[in-house]
Automatic annotation (TrEMBL):
Keywords: ATP-binding, Kinase, Membrane, Nucleotide-binding, Phosphoprotein, TPR repeat, Transferase, Transmembrane, Transmembrane helix, Two-component regulatory system. This is histidine kinase. It comes from Belliella alkalica. Its EC number is 2.7.13.3. It comes from the Bacteria. Pfam families: HATPase_c (PF02518), HisKA_3 (PF07730), TPR_12 (PF13424), TPR_8 (PF13181).
Amino acid sequence: MKNFTHVTKVLFLFFVLICFKGNGQNQAILDSLDKVIKNTTVDSIRAEALMDLAWQKMYSDNPASLALAHQGIRELEKVNNLRIIGYAYTVMGVVHWVGASYDSASYYLNKSAEAYLEKGDLRGVSAVYNNLSMVYQNKSDYTKALMFATNALETSEKIGDDKMIGNSLFSVGNIHYLLKDNPKALKYYQKALSKKNKANDQHNLQKLYLNLGSTFHNLKELDSATYYYSQCVLLSENLGDFKALAIASTNLGNLAMDQSKPKLALDHYNKSQTIYHSKLKNDYDFSVLLHSMAKAQLQLGNHVLAEEFGRKSLTLSEKLNDNTRLLSAHSVLADVFQEKGDFKNAFLSYKQAQAYKDSIFNIEKSTAIADIETKYETEKKEAQIVLQAAELAQQKASIQRNLILIFSLLIILFLASVLFILNQNRQKKARKLLLQEKEIEIKEAYINAVLESQENERKRFAQDLHDGFGQLISALRLNISNLNNDSKNLEDRTDIVDKSELILKEMHTEIRNIAFNLMPATLIQYGLKEAVNEFAHRINSTGKIQIIVDTQEMSTRLKEIQEISLYRVIQEWVNNVIKYANAHKITIQFVQHDSELNLLIEDDGAGFDVNSLHNSSGNGWRNIQSRLKRINADFEIDSHPDRKGSSLIIDLPIDKLTIAKEAGIMV
């Protein structure tokens, strides 16, 4: 039958409320709950009982169910139990969902999710996410619907609950069905059925059978569709699930229509209609049934009844403000008017249907408009309007597609830029962290070098005192002891005193040498220039090497830390040259500028590989680096193993005004 496949898809109901209470009516349960509500004095028990009763009545008497739910919500002011609060808001949301109040349903279900999250009840959170997915499915907001269904699936997989995983797979399958991807929907439904069988979960199984039947129906696998519809009917009758039973009966009627058996279809439709009149109130599902009954009456040629059922379906659809239902109602009325020969009303109904179709699916204009145009040839003006409306709709659809494409590209570009920036920042932080770690390692090496150098200096100082000064003290003590010998004559005693005086002079010289090595007094009193000259004089006096010092271009003193650091660097470098380079002459030259002091140390000894300094395990080179870094001095080494001579060039930034103030000199 023309356009019937589309109608079959629209008839499909996607119902997967995942809560913790059953929905079958049982008078004994109702009476028991009513008795608890009247007699209990415990606020939490009363609140939960009110919600249980609201749950039991939400299909048979939705207004009464809503009143009970509101009463239960008021009781929550006295309850401090997150489980009961989460359940109460779930029931309130579901009752609003059944009554097609989708915004209110979304509000209360979100409050339920907040309570379950605060409690840490992931099973409750997964159930609420599935319910929120259903709300947005009915609002045709499939993006949010899929988001909540996916969140529900991830949450249920996190806790490893097969029952909840099956429910979430069921919900994801529903959305793919709505998006007309029947193969993918079937895949998720079959996974959901497998999980439910594994968990021995009968809850909502009849609804899963119903949706499997509808999917096979759309795929034209009618035997499989009949099997699952029949399974749904049997299980729904046993459970008293009148909603699923009514929908299954409607879909069996649709199946009969596909087989061109409108009378058999009406038998199924009438069974469903009886349920809606006596057991169940659900405007959405009832509008679906009325649409199907209109199609059946139209196929039987009963145009009056077909128009009556079509208009009733349209009235309910307008009440629901549901675009899918409005599309179906206007479509069937267009077919009815066309069969009656009322082409003007047929055109208007098709035009309305096309508007809703564009708003839902954003597809090209319907070919049905062109069919009506040929029959409506006496109304040329109206025909022209049809063409213009169709062209405008097509242009609008094209513009919308282009805007969506542009917007999507902008989002992709923005996300790519954000990812690029984040990656750059991450790499920058990694490099910075690596540099900091390297600096820490260098500082630790410097500290270790300084400590080891200090320890070596203490050892050398102790050795000098022991070997040099200690021996002299022993000799002096021996001489003095000889003075007490009465056998010594005056001449011998005078000789002993002379020798003691010579020992004291040697001790004085030794003390001065030790003090000079520790910290030259000349450096502190007179500055770097005089200290270096004294240092050179001491080495020159040995006759082993000649040191030439040129300090003519050095006019003022430096800061104390600068003078001490440079002196120690000169001392360390010269000692290394004497020890390793086999040099005959060393030149030390100072050149002072307004903002910089240049120091050059040259020798005529053997050259060396500069890179070997960086791999050296000794403390000398590390001490030099540490001291120069401390005073912010730059340095450069010029040497090569294939040629004679080496040079150390040091550039020290200075501030003459600051130096002068510290030294108490007016400039």
